[in-house]
Write a structure and sequence with these properties.
elongated; three-stranded antiparallel β-sheet; single chain; alpha+beta
Amino acid sequence: MPALRKMALDEMQRALPPEFSSVEAKQWLQGRYRAPLKVLGALERSGELVRLKRGLYGFRRGFEPLAAAASLHGASYVSFETALAYYGLIPERVATIMSVVDGRPAVFETSVGRFEYHSQARSLFAKGMSLVFLGDRPCPMANCEKALLDTLARHKLRAAVLEPAELLSFALGGLRIDEERLATLSIRKLRRLAKQYRNWAPRRLVEALERQRR
């Protein structure tokens, strides 16, 4: 059985996408193996396949959690501290993969990590998304400016009563945003995005950055 699993795994990984449905797997296995569901179950029990949610699998070998996030719950793209860490704006590695979603929020606990999806108004969701490549895999991700403002808004600060300087202090101290990297962000992009949030924190931060750069 181990040799059979290895052969099935190698062939599957060449034929199927990195994340695939149980229906796709069954269709591919049928005709090649007498008991396709047993082969699929054996690959999962051995840890060579990862069950991401009911009916959705991924290959553990070469698994890329950031790129996989969009397959789990969509339409979505990676943002918040996850994207900030990817861009090097914060020093910490973020264990949870956080995304914005045009739909209902959701959380998935898997053997390869925790995936969180935070809902966002469609008008805001549609702005600030980029496509990055992780190896040869495209990954939808918020740009630096959107990821920063998403993170700030998610903290739900009582920003209407805070001074702009206090928001800047929170970004640098509370979120641990790298000050040199912060200085490279586009004020034009930040200003355009900040108007879309209900929370005042993004606007207050933009005000502080505009004063700082005068």
